[in-house]
Amino acid sequence: MTIETVCRDRRETDDVAPLRHRVTAAFKALANTVARRRRIRRTRIHLAGLSAEQLRDIGLSREQADAETRRSLFLAIERTMSPK
């Protein structure tokens, strides 16, 4: 192993580090986005299942709860397809 080889290997490693950092940051951002959307979906599912009395306790009407549920396309489809 020569000094040129060591210097070249070090330069290649230094070039990869910023890319690795950007990729890691992108995956973290994606994971955070997915987690946030799942949390919102769970909240909307629970909101759709509340009774009129429970909605009144938190200060919402059935129309407001339905409007929030409709903001999620898949929940709106589920509610129209499931009999109540």
From TrEMBL:
<feature type="domain" description="YjiS-like">
    <location>
        <begin position="30"/>
        <end position="65"/>
    </location>
</feature>
<protein>
    <submittedName>
        <fullName>DUF1127 domain-containing protein</fullName>
    </submittedName>
</protein>
<dbReference type="InterPro" id="IPR009506">
    <property type="entry name" value="YjiS-like"/>
</dbReference>
<dbReference type="Pfam" id="PF06568">
    <property type="entry name" value="YjiS-like"/>
</dbReference>
